[in-house]
Design brief:
- Helix 1 packs across helix 2 (52-59) and helix 4 (73-101) runs parallel beside helix 7.
- The chain is mostly helical.
- It has 9 helices and no strands.
- The relative contact order is 0.09.
- The protein starts with a helix and ends with a helix.
- It is elongated.
- It has helices at residues 3-45, 52-59, 63-69, 73-101, 107-124, 126-133, 143-155, 169-185, 191-210.
Length: 212
């Protein structure tokens, strides 16, 4: 292969790579525009009263692009819900690690530290969490609420309060309290009240442990 051919081939590869990067940037920008618009609409109008044309108008993205990128309104909601849950998990893990690094060894207190981080982030993400937690999302799956329950239960594995009649009874008791807290938090607008709700439920959990 001649130097000229090598140079031409390298240039063609660079052009193709540049085109791909441009496509990725455009694709990411399209997804963000759709998700931002849908998040606002779901929060303002509710899931059921938002249709795909509303998202088209608000986002400026064509209906064809939305179906290509996501598949439909249900999938747009799922992408928002999964992103919110991933963020909750990361915040909870950081709070748990911080408690351990500070010298906490009590499993229940470590759990509560993570739960408080999770709940505070639920309040911060209430515009989308409200749709899932209050079962106002896609009726066939209510996936957001189910995943909340699964994550709350996983976080309580290994914790036993009192003499539970079934191995997972403690986990379900903790889940009930945390889900109750989350249900209240998604309807609270000021942070001071949100913090008070979180502290209240955290203290209830700790009192359960101290009553053994």
């Amino acid at each position: 292969m001649s130097p000229a051919s090598t140079s031409r081939t390298s240039g063609e590869l660079a052009d193709r790579n540049g085109e791909r990067k441009g496509e990725w940037r455009r694709s990411a920008g399209t997804k963000k525009a759709v998700l931002d618009a849908a998040r606002q609409l779901f929060n303002e109008k509710g899931y059921d009263d938002t249709n795909i044309n509303d998202i088209v108008r608000e986002s400026g993205v064509s209906v064809g692009s939305i179906y290509h990128q996501f598949g439909g309104k249900k999938e747009v909601f799922r992408a928002l819900a999964e992103s919110s849950l991933d963020r909750h998990r990361e915040v909870s893990e950081r709070a748990t690690k911080k408690a351990i690094a500070a010298g906490e060894t009590d499993p229940l207190r470590i759990y509560v530290a993570g739960a408080k981080g999770y709940l505070l982030d639920t309040w911060k993400q209430r515009d989308i969490d409200r749709v899932g937690i209050l079962l106002e999302g896609p009726a066939p799956e209510a996936a957001h609420a189910r995943e909340h329950r699964a994550r709350f239960l996983r976080g309580s594995l290994g914790i036993t309060i009192g003499e539970p009649p079934l191995p997972e009874a403690t986990g379900y008791a903790l889940y009930g309290l945390l889900y109750g807290a989350a249900t209240q938090l998604v309807n609270i607008e000021d942070r001071r009240t949100a913090n008070a709700v979180i502290d209240y439920f955290a203290e209830l959990i700790l009192k359960m442990g101290s009553a053994e």
